[in-house]
Structures are given as structure tokens and as C-alpha cells.
Amino acid sequence: MRKSILIFGHGSATQFIDISNQYTKLFDPAKFEVTVVYLTGEPDEQVKQRHIAEHVYFLNNNKRDTRGLKLGAIKQMLALQKEKKFQIVICHRYKPSYIMMWVAQLSSIPALFFVMHELKTLSSLSRKLTVATLMRKNMYFAGVSNAVRDDIRRDIWGVPETRVITLYNMIDIELTKPTFIDRAAAREKLNLSDDSFVFGTLGRLVKAKDQQTMIKGFALIKERCPNAKLIIIGDGDLEQELRDQIKQLGLEEDIILTGYIPQGFCLLKAFDVFMLTSVKEAFGRVLLESMIAKVPIIATRTNGIPEVVGDAGILIDPRDSEQLATMMLAFYQLPKDELEEWTDKGERRAIQEFSMQKFNEIFWELSINRNNT
Question: CA distances (Å), 57 to each of 6, 42, 49, 111, in order?
């Protein structure tokens, strides 16, 4: 008889569909039956079809339902646990973890993993108390980087360090590579000429991503880099502020805010250099996508970013536009063959450290070690 596995997430945004599939691939269908559940969102057949799990359920809780004690969601999951008798439960983000911690008090579940994807997720007093009260020996917390793992270890009370581990976000290289649009087509979609040297980024326009420093750095090099363009893909609260900054610098023709583009990562090959200037970043999945797209990287030395980039890109200090400008100019002036050396390094690192095969090895090695302790 196959063992029943639960992967429980907050919502079915594209990145979490990918993460659900990442974890589903851990389990041999001949031995395991995997169910994916989302706390929020209406049933959606198209979303369901993008999963490789056998079962996908949508609890359709609204914002009001997911506040406070979440008794309705706890009852829903307790009923599902009694029906499916899950042997392993993997929760992503805090609210699904909170719900299953309560379910585990009322029903026997051999192993539970609570994966946190952001920094400071467990820093509030109420969450510290909840974890301290509900934590059991069959429960493990995981961060998507060592930075998040260490953050969890500092914040929660009474939990041995051995039960707070790292489970990196990975990338399915075989599935990801074919989704990239080739350089010429990607540039045509973004209205970029072939002779432009394109610095680009992809992400929400929010303070944590600090696109302001990126714009300042670009302004410092533009006069010496006549063919340079800066493309910023994404939307968010800071869009108007960034547009005003660009206008004040007189760079409306050279810095382009595209707004949100669905599956924007598919356009990464349009870039000559990918940049991530975050001041706070738990992991940075887009860095892996850039490595697989074979685009060199400049990124900030903060939180989980150095763990992803390693020696396969250039790391700079956060909020340092002059340091950023120096590295941008260096890449602009590099011969093509030296640029390709950076792209090869990035691809090798993604394959060696962040492939699905690597994740499979890490997860089951951790499982064996836990069973021996």
C-alpha cells in the first residue's frame, strides 16, 4: 500500500506551483500518493493541470478566514487527514504550518516539515508562543536558505537546532530550459535592438528589491556606455516613484519599466547581465533562472543571495550605487569570450548545487540522518 503525502501551500502563484512540483518529484509514484492542497483560491482546472501530483485541492479560504485562529481551515484539514492518513506533511509558509501543527495535536502524523520562504516569519511573540506550545518531536522547520534557517533558529524557542534545517528552492533544469525565448525573439518582444548592451532585472517593485540603487548605478555609467539599456520587469508599489526618478535623471529612453509580464523569466536571454540589488532576500529563485538562461549575474551580498550565487557571479554591498556602477562598467567592457566564461560558471553551479537530482539527494539524506537520531 502506498504512503500518503501532503504538500500544503498558502496559494497557487506560479512560484509555489513550481515548488509543489519540486517536492512532489521526491516521491516515487509507485510507493507514494501525493496530494497538494492550497489554503486560498477557488478550484481552477488550468492550475490543477500544471501540477504533477495525483490530487490537487483548493480550500478557497478568503483573507478573513485565514486570520486569527483559522478554525474553519483546521477543521477542513483535520477531515482530510482522517480521510487520507498522511504519513509525511510538507507545509510552505506560516499559515499552512500553523494549521497542520494544530491538526497534528488531534491526529497522528509521523513526520511534518514546515518550510519558511521569507526572513522574520517567526519573529512575532504570538508565533514564538505558538511554536513553543505546539512543537513535537516529529516536526521539523526548514528555511529555503541557510540565512532563513539561522533566522528561524534565532527566533523560535525550545526547538533543538537539529530540527531546524535548510531545504533550498531548486530548479527543474530540464523543464526550465525549453521555456526560455531565444535572444532575438526576447529582444523583439521588449523592443530592444540587437546592438544594445542590456542590463536587466525581474521582480516586484518594492523597497526590499531596491531598484533605486540599480537606477543610480546605471546613471553613473551611461555616459561611458552609449549602447547600454536597463530593463526592469515587474510591477509594485514603487512603480511611480521609480518613473519619477528616471525622469529626473533624463533617462526615459534608456531605462525601461515594462510593468508585469506573465512568465517574465522566459525573456531572460534578452539580457547581457542580470542584476539583483535587494537589501533583503531570503533566496532569489530568479538567480537560478538566470544561471540556466546563461546570463551573468551582479547581485548584492545579503541574506541568502551569496548561497545561491557562490563564485558564479559578482557580489556587491547593498545600497552601494558606485560599487554597482564599477561592476556594470566592467561587464560592459568584457570581451565576449570572458562574458561566456561567467555564463558557463553560472550554469555549472545551478546544475551541481540546485538541480532536482541534488535536492532529491539532500532530502533523503536528511531523512536517513533523522531516522538515526
Answer: 11, 9, 12, 21
Question: pLDDT for 2-48, tens place per residue?
Answer: 999 999 999 988 889 999 999 999 999 999 999 999 999 999 999 99
Question: Is residue 106 packed enough to be buried (19+ CB in 10 Å), middle (13-18) or exposed (0-12)?
Answer: exposed
pTM: 0.92
DSSP three-state, residue 334: coil
For residues 15 and 171, the answer to whether their CB atoms sit within 8 Å is no
Which segments in the chain show pLDDT lower than 70? 367-373
Same domain as 196, residue 152:
no
Give CA–CA dist 1/325, Å, rounded. Answer: 60
Same domain, 231 and 148: no
Q: How far apart are CA 265 and CA 59, in angstroms?
A: 29
C-alpha closest to that of 146 among 127, 161, 133, 135: 161
| Residues 131 and 16 both lie in one domain | yes
Q: What is the number of alpha carbons within 13 Å of residue 313 lying toward its C-beta?
A: 31
Torsion sign across C-alpha atoms 96, 98, 101, 105: negative
Domain holding 150, by residue range, is 3-170
Place of cell 508565533: 127
For residue 364, give every residue at least 6 positions away whose Cβ sits within 8 Å of its Cβ, in sequence order, or none.
26
Domain shared by 290 and 186, yes or no:
yes
C-alpha 337/C-alpha 315 separation (Å) is 21
Residue among 293, 335, 343 at smallest CA distance from 314: 343
